[in-house]
Amino acid sequence: MDEKLIESYKAFLNDGKTERECCARIIEDARAAGYKDIRDCKILKAGDKVYISKFGKAVALFNIGTGSIEDGLNILGAHIDSPRLDVKQNPLYEKDFLVYLNTHYYGGIKKYQWLTLPLALHGVVCKKDGTTVNVRLGEDEEDPVFVISDILPHLAQKQMKEAASDFVPGESLDLILGSEIPPRKDDDGKDKKDDKAEKDEKDKAKKSVLKILKDKYGIDEADFGSAELEVVPAGRARDLGLDRSLILAYGQDDRSCAYTSAAALFASKAGARTTCCLCVDKEEIGSVGATGMESHFFENAVAELVARLGTYSELSVRRCLYNSYMLSSDVNAAYDPQNGDLYDRDNASFLGGGIVFNKYTGSRGKYSASDAMPEFIAKLRGLLDGRNIRYQMAELGKVDQGGGGTIAYLAAKYGMYVLDAGVAVLSMHAPWEITSREDICQAYEAYKAFLTLA
Fold it and tell me: Does the global pTM surpass 0.90?
């Protein structure tokens, strides 16, 4: 067991609870490993190491090989966004002496899992004067935390009869930010205050919260309109189990694969083929936008690479992508013994079983799947078997139970070989997810081996 790798992985999860934080951490590690911003390099040659970032939320890293770029890349592709709650643009309101922050959930979550948990705020607030305020509140011991309240069981008879998908409306996932002491009642049970006092007391708690935001961060209420604030579970990654064989942490889908992919690249030296680690955003909502895999970010990054390696041509870019190999470094559902009827056990992945090869994703009749080529899988099997690296072949669950997707199909459109290969996760998409320490180590070794594939 590589204990140094595991501790570094947990530190990565603690530092990177948003895609911006992950991207910044990856770039910091890349620079320490000798990588340079491609904008600082007019010409590239074999052995050079460069990175390209987009909006601080996606990054592509390249280690230039000795062969022709037209022969293709060895690509480890992961995503660094995770299910969460996003703060709305006009979020702050007071209701009956409690101050709330209005949210909109991001990605596939079970809404009820986010109730009564200590929550933290991470993100940026961009002000009109051009300055950006970084927010990270709720992680330090001295920080306050936030929470979404729930109904007490004594009054929850109606709630308990509703479907799990319905009993917590999305519009009710609002954080408690502060409170105010209610006024005393008079003999008739009415609030004891005159008209002037009532006017002065209106939204008093909200004003108090706004004053704190102004004093601490210099933020006005209107600044929420140009903010990107994410609500995530407060707390650090922890060892799980008396034997410490497992890891409990937020965001392991897909940061378990993003971390091990980047770490594998930093620990490797390119041979003939140029090697690459690609970390993108927005996978949890369809890989859309300027920082998602569906954008032209990666294609443009490769074009920048080709331009600095010699005479640029569109054909060279297309040949490079066409001849590439890629592992779509994304997680798979770990077999859950408590809910075994949801899985085809013979085709399930197990915690501690090693990296998971998922030939196809999609749902039910392989809808929206990327179906990997058996020739490519056989080549990888031989490579990993030769290095005694553990792997398992698996699907997400039973055929008619549902399904999911990755960025694989968006890379496959270029004609390259692509296979989903990642870490098994229990309680996937929950605020706290479970992985095996053994699988983190095996994924890291598998990714390093893949980068040597000729």
Answer: yes
| Cα separation values, 49 from 59, 67, 125, Å | 13, 15, 32
For residue 179, count CB atoms less than 10 angstroms from its CB and return exposed for 0-12, middle for 13-18, buried for 19 or more. Answer: middle
pLDDT for position 198: 55
The SS3 call for residue 424 is strand
Q: Which three-class secondary structure state does DSSP give residue 238?
A: strand
Peptide bond into 254 cis (omega under 30): yes
Q: How would DSSP label each residue in 79-105?
A: E----EEEEEEEEEEEETTEEEEEEEE
- When pLDDT is cut at 50, 70 and 90, the band that residue 192 belongs to is low
The arithmetic mean of pLDDT across residues 54-73, rounded, is 98
CA distance 39 to 45: 15
Can you tell me the mean pLDDT for 359-378? 89
Tens digits of per-residue pLDDT, 258-298? 999 999 999 999 999 999 999 999 999 999 999 999 999 99
Residue 181 burial (CB < 10 Å; 0-12/13-18/19+)? exposed
CA 32 distance to own-chain centroid: 23
Q: Dihedral sign, CA of 34, 247, 452, 328?
A: negative
Closest CA to 389 of 347, 353, 417: 353
Strands 355-358 and 238-240: unpaired
Q: Which residue has the tokens 């939204």?
A: 203
At 126, which helix (H) or strand (E)? strand 119-126
Q: Which residue has the tokens 């690296």?
A: 389
| Contact residues for 429 (Cβ-Cβ < 8 A; gap 6+) | 83, 107, 108, 109, 110, 253
Rounded Cα distance, 259 and 80, in Å: 9
Sheet of 246-249: strand order equals 238-240, 246-249, 433-436
CA 49 to CA 70: how far, in whole Å?
18
Tell me which DSSP letter residue 204 carries: H
CB contact set of 117 (below 8 Å; sequence gap of 6+) = 147, 148, 233, 234, 431
DSSP SS3 for 227: strand
50 with 427: CB under 8 angstroms? no
Q: What is the DSSP letter of 317?
A: H
CA 126 to chain centre: 22
Distance CA(62)–CA(60), nearest Å, equals: 7
406: nearest Cα among 350, 346, 359 = 359
Single out the residue of 229, 218, 277 nearest to residue 20, CA to CA.
229
Q: Is 333 exposed, middle or buried (0-12, 13-18, 19+ CB in 10 A)?
A: buried
The terminus-to-terminus CA distance of the chain in angstroms comes to 28
Question: What is the helix (H) or strand (E) element at residue 412, kind and residue range?
Answer: helix 408-412
